[in-house]
């Protein structure tokens, strides 16, 4: 294998990329756009849940309880109906997702050290929001009850929870690192999936085949420009994640970029393999999107916890390289883990890249079929 041949192919591919504005736009603008769109659109933080409050007591204590709900920041009251029967219209029309029903004896029972029953109706059509809203209202009710009772009773267990790595519990902090893995998976595979197929479509493959260049030299030369593009995309994505979305980067930047390079090598090899198999640009682009976006989005642990998936799907996730890269990114960003704690995932990514690269080399044949 001679470096001068690899350099010649890399130079040829670079010139083709620079002459193609669409490829340049896709290479540099698509990651930025996807990160902005997904970064702001995907969130598990639920705030400003519309609610209605039916206060039949109309006392100072009932108004104080209502103020406790609105001041939490999780709910805002859209209406104060006078009857329980009026609640249905708000929930049916989607104007409210939660209804609180304060009985007429609310303050009387509180003053008598009783336990008034406050009714809560939650719209369960969105199960995620309903579950979170139920937790919010339960916490607010418990705090209000403790404050009213004066907390005279000392609990048997004094639990003092502390949240590590993401103390603010912001969903953006673990979504954005996963987004970087998703975007790089799709972008590098999509770009390289067109390289070999483009040569066949343009009729220039015969010229390459007639040269003394060897298959590994051709593939490596094709990959080099896109590796540089992918590396630039990685740097831009990390900068956007930390500066635009305020995601903490507690680990080593050098380690992050180094392991990103390992992931890029595997993604580029997969794109080259698709390009060799497909032989047409249209089919290659479709195969690249289907084989990278869906697995990275659904089976990498980016959106859905792998432990909650059926056993059969859990086994399938081991073949998804984005699974390991998502874990690496979250560990470096949020936990600041060193290489020794990431060696398992990094090794699997390296093995994946080498295996796919070897298959691509074997699959490509220097002859006109």
3D architecture notes:
- The protein is mainly alpha-helical.
- Helices cover 65% and strands 6% of the residues.
- The chain has a four-stranded mixed sheet.
- The longest helix has 29 residues, at 215-243.
- It is elongated, with a radius of gyration of 28 Å.
- The mean pLDDT is 87.
Please specify the SSE layout and strand pairing.
Layout: H1 3-18, H2 21-41, E1 49-55, H3 60-71, E2 75-79, H4 87-92, E3 98-102, H5 106-111, E4 119-122, H6 127-149, H7 172-192, H8 195-202, H9 205-210, H10 215-243, H11 253-278, H12 281-298, H13 311-317, H14 321-335, H15 339-363
Helix pairs in contact: 1-10, 2-7, 2-10, 7-10, 7-11, 7-12, 7-14, 8-11, 10-11, 11-12, 11-14, 11-15, 14-15
List keywords for this structure.
65% helix; 15 helices; mainly alpha; four-stranded mixed sheet; single chain; 369 residues; 4 strands
Short description:
65% of the residues lie in helices and 6% in strands.
Shape: elongated
Radius of gyration from the alpha-carbon trace, in angstroms: 28 Å
Question: How far apart, in Å, are the first and last alpha carbons?
Answer: 25 Å
Largest sheet strand order? 2-1-3-4
Structural class: mainly alpha
What is the average of the pLDDT values? Answer: 87
The portion of residues forming beta strands comes to 5-15%
Tally of contiguous helical segments = 15
- How much helix is in the residues? 55-70%
Pick out the low-confidence regions.
none
Which H/E pattern describes the elements?
HHEHEHEHEHHHHHHHHHH
The major β-sheet equals: 4 strands, mixed
- Would you count the extended β strands for me? 4
